[in-house]
Design brief:
356 residues, alpha+beta, D-amino Acid Aminotransferase, Chain A, domain 1, nine-stranded mixed beta sheet, 7 helices, 18 strands, 24% helix, binds pyridoxal-5'-phosphate, branched-chain amino acid biosynthesis, aminotransferase
Length: 356
């Protein structure tokens, strides 16, 4: 299917900022994509100047939280071509989330054509410097105006884009992570494995408290026993214990990260043992005590592969690898970013190069 997408170009360009001062998610590009869903179909697919949406205060997203999003990146690759990273993965994950939240899924063709048309219109916003990208935020919300708990019958799918640098203020230096012992992010059977806005609302009190203590994010533990590691605020997490890399298995409450999947595929291709299983926080402390904990890192679209230099809670504080980025962490970061930019071949088919 070829979607007809109308394009209205902006008459007043938004302010651009130097690439070394982008930070993460502070600025938005000139245009956005919008499509509306009602009576069983998606309509009025269009690219318009970036700006406010007009929604009825009764819109269900404000009351019953039907809000779901994705986060993906476009890069300026070799020969100045536009590289999209794993768009198919994001289409599938959005569809999985939509099903869980009783929302209509965004057809793969609509998603793909919208993303491609938008990044082409705003291609001059794709930053070129190392560590930067155009971050895309496809978002699906319920817009029908009513009170009473039921799924909305009207939806908006929009995509905004933001030129970004490194996610953490630390850049790619190791970050400090606080182990959250009392609050939980998600429970098995709930929404933890989808990018529902509600999960992030549920995380804010813990992450705000951690930031006050000068920690970048929190490490979540399981909701039942408060013992097994789930993930970090916006990253999946990996532990290198001796020569084996361990990451929590996808149990239904952890987000199945695109970058997590990249890390696992790369490790396998390098014949480095990688295991997806339950791992308790005590096992990590024990491995540290005996000198077997070699590296800890997080993976995410925003943070790519990010070294964890310190893990702490009220009773513990451990420094990992002398607070230095480990060799494996560095290698994974370098491999993934090289594939994203087309500096290395793409044996897994992760990159979609756009024809201009
Ligand atoms: C809660 C959570 N876990 C993990 C991730 C990493 O997922 P991905 O690699 O797909 O960005 C993210 C970011 O999307 C996230 O928000």
């Amino acid at each position: 299917m070829k979607t007809t997408i109308s394009i209205e170009k902006t008459k007043s360009e938004r302010t651009r900022h130097p690439e070394d001062q982008l930070g993460f998610g502070k600025y938005f590009a000139d245009h956005m994509f919008i499509a509306e869903y009602s009576e069983g179909s998606w309509k009025e697919a269009r690219i318009v100047p970036y700006g406010p949406l007009s929604l009825d205060p009764g819109a269900s997203v404000f009351h019953y939280g039907q809000a779901l999003f994705e986060g993906m990146k476009a890069f300026r690759g070799q020969n100045d071509r536009i590289h999209l990273f794993r768009p198919d993965f994001h289409v599938r994950r959005l569809a999985h989330g939509a099903e869980k939240l009783c929302m209509p899924s965004v057809p793969a063709e609509l998603f793909t054509e919208a993303v491609e048309a938008l990044v082409k219109v705003d291609s001059s916003w794709i930053p070129k410097s190392e560590g930067s990208a155009l971050y895309l935020r496809p978002t699906l919300i319920g817009t029908e105006s009513f009170l009473g708990v039921r799924p909305s019958q009207k939806y908006l799918f929009f995509i905004i884009t933001s030129p970004v640098g490194p996610y953490y203020s630390e850049g790619f230096n190791p970050v400090k992570i606080w182990i959250e012992r009392s609050r939980v992010r998600a429970a098995v059977g709930g929404l933890g494995d989808i990018k529902a806005g509600a999960n992030y609302a549920a995380s804010l009190a813990a992450s705000t408290a951690a930031k006050k203590k000068d920690f970048a994010q929190v490490l979540w533990l399981d909701s039942m026993e408060r013992k097994y590691i789930e993930e970090v605020g916006t990253m999946n997490v990996f532990f290198k214990i001796n020569d084996e890399v361990i990451t929590p298995a996808l149990n239904g409450s952890i987000l199945a990260g695109a970058t997590r999947d990249c890390v696992i595929q790369l490790l396998k291709s390098w014949n480095i043992p990688v295991t997806e299983r339950k791992i308790s926080i005590d096992e990590v402390f024990d491995a540290h005590k005996t000198g077997q904990l070699k590296e800890v890192f997080g993976s995410g679209t925003a943070a790519v592969v990010s070294s964890v230099g310190e893990l702490a809670d009220q009773d513990h504080r451990i420094t990992i690898n002398n607070n230095q980025v480990g060799d494996l962490t560095k290698k994974l970061l370098n491999e993934i970013t090289s594939i994203q930019l087309g500096k290395k071949s793409d044996p897994f088919g992760w990159v979609k190069v756009l024809e201009s």
